Predict the structure of Cell wall anchor protein.
Amino acid sequence: YDKTEHTVTVTVVADGQGLLTATVSYADGKAVVFTNKYTVPNPTPDPNPTPDPNPTPDPAPTPDPAPTPDPAPTPDPAPTPDPAPTPDPAPTPDPAPTPDPAPTPDPAPTPAPPATENKGKAELPNTGEATSIFSAIGFVVLALSGLVFFVKRKA
């Protein structure tokens, strides 16, 4: 795709049989022909990939210094008692609440456009056709086992 712009003229005319026909032309009168071409881009590899330089080894690790023991803990000073508690001041009553303003009515909903039916391929709903095969096989096995049971019972 490119960003080329072309100005074309589209003329729509009734053909007298209830159909519309359109003719498309350039401003200079030439007919318009559309062609789509797609070429798969070829990836271009890097011409000369640069190798990583030689990695430098880490210098010799230094051992951690010897740990020093913690000094002896010091005891906490004597606790001080809390001062006498002060009573809370008397609560003040809340002012009278103001009523909410009158609610505004919701605007009438706009009617939705009627749903259009998609005219696709008519098909039956998927109701588990794959399980019907297993049901048929199970029925055949059940019938055969019943037949074997009755034959052995009579013998």
